[in-house]
């Protein structure tokens, strides 16, 4: 029987951020809140309408050092590293190649990852000029998201499949004295009462292959290397099923196209086999071609408490104070740290 005296928390969105917020709330405040997750798409859906099932879902460096993002990613990296025993993540070696020699002083993440070292010239393939190696984590979203949902259900979290168009509707579901967490990703752009014009998509196209001989992540720096058409290169071994590897990819800002582009797929395959010739064997089988839209935001993520007078009166988001950073488009690798920061806002109520 549900205790009605608990304060009701409604989380909009069942992607990795929404699910992780629910997990942190039910861990930190197991008897203070009843939690409902409301979403059009749920973790068992393989839907292009939200990004979480299609994510690379590994830890990889993105952009310059930002102390706020570093804190989120440090928390998340350690959390995922310790989840390896559950079979939900795997700890794998990783290499990143650069078009210039490595300046260790600029590698802000060398103390975040494990086993960091600079590659010797003999270990760096042409045409690259330098490289680094470290141990990182990878996650399989299509295993991890259903696990999170099952765990939350066992904690009493209720899942409701419903598309919310207006923040007023979410407040009505939360009820008197209720709390709403907006974790809608790209949906924040069109959610009435939020309508954040700084939110935009980053199109990612990948190939999932069976390649049991590929045991490590390999990449160019994703945000430093895209060609003018958004092409980049990375490969990510999955923790399960055995031998599954994600080949990428693209980083195409403001591109809403969710269809497969087979010219891009050919370029992904060509770059991947050049980086790791072991892919180009009879053992490698293509399993699927994938396209997802990463949610990104100009100025970085917005994690703050906002009081709204209902019904919402139309207002410009430019008038609202925002916390800004350089981060965007990597929900998994900051998920636990971002969720903890969001849940800390409950103490301000």
UniProtKB/TrEMBL annotation:
It holds the Pfam family DAO. FAD binds at residue 184. GO terms for molecular function: D-amino-acid oxidase activity; FAD binding. InterPro entries: DAO, FAD-dep_OxRdtase. D-dopa binds at residues 234, 294, 329. Its cofactor is FAD. Keywords: FAD, Flavoprotein, Oxidoreductase. This is FAD dependent oxidoreductase domain-containing protein. It comes from Meripilus lineatus. The lineage of its organism: Eukaryota, Fungi, Dikarya, Basidiomycota, Agaricomycotina.
């Amino acid at each position: 029987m549900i205790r009605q005296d608990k304060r009701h928390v409604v989380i909009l969105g069942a992607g990795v951020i929404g699910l992780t917020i629910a997990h942190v709330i039910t861990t930190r405040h197991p008897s203070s809140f009843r939690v409902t997750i409301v979403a059009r798409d749920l973790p068992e859906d393989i839907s292009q309408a939200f990004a979480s099932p299609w994510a690379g879902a590994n830890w990889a460096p993105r952009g310059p050092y930002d102390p706020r993002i570093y804190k989120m990613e440090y928390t998340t990296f350690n959390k995922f590293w310790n989840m390896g025993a559950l079979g939900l993540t795997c700890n794998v070696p990783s290499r990143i190649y650069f078009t210039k020699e490595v300046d260790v002083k600029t590698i802000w993440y060398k103390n975040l990852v494990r086993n960091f070292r600079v590659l010797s010239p003999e270990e760096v393939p042409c045409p690259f000029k330098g490289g680094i190696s470290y141990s990182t984590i990878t996650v399989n979203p299509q295993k991890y998201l259903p696990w999170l949902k099952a765990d939350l259900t066992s904690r009493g979290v209720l899942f409701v499949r419903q598309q919310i168009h207006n923040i007023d509707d979410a407040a009505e579901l939360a009820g008197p004295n209720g709390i709403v967490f907006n974790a809608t990703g790209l949906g924040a752009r069109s959610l009435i009462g939020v309508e954040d014009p700084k939110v935009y998509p980053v199109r990612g196209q990948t190939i999932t292959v069976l390649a049991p001989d590929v045991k490590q992540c390999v990449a160019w720096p994703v945000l430093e290397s895209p060609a003018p058409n958004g092409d980049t290169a990375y490969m990510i071994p999955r923790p399960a099923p055995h031998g599954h590897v994600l080949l990428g990819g693209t980083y195409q800002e403001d591109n809403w196209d969710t269809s497969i582009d087979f010219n891009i797929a050919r370029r992904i395959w060509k770059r991947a086999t050049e980086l790791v010739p072991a892919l180009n064997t009879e053992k490698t089988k293509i399993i699927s071609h994938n396209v997802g839209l990463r949610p990104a935001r100009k100025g970085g993520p917005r994690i703050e408490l906002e009081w709204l007078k209902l019904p919402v009166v139309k207002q410009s988001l430019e008038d609202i104070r925002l916390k800004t950073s350089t981060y965007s488009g990597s929900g998994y690798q900051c998920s636990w740290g971002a969720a903890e920061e969001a849940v800390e806002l409950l103490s301000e109520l």
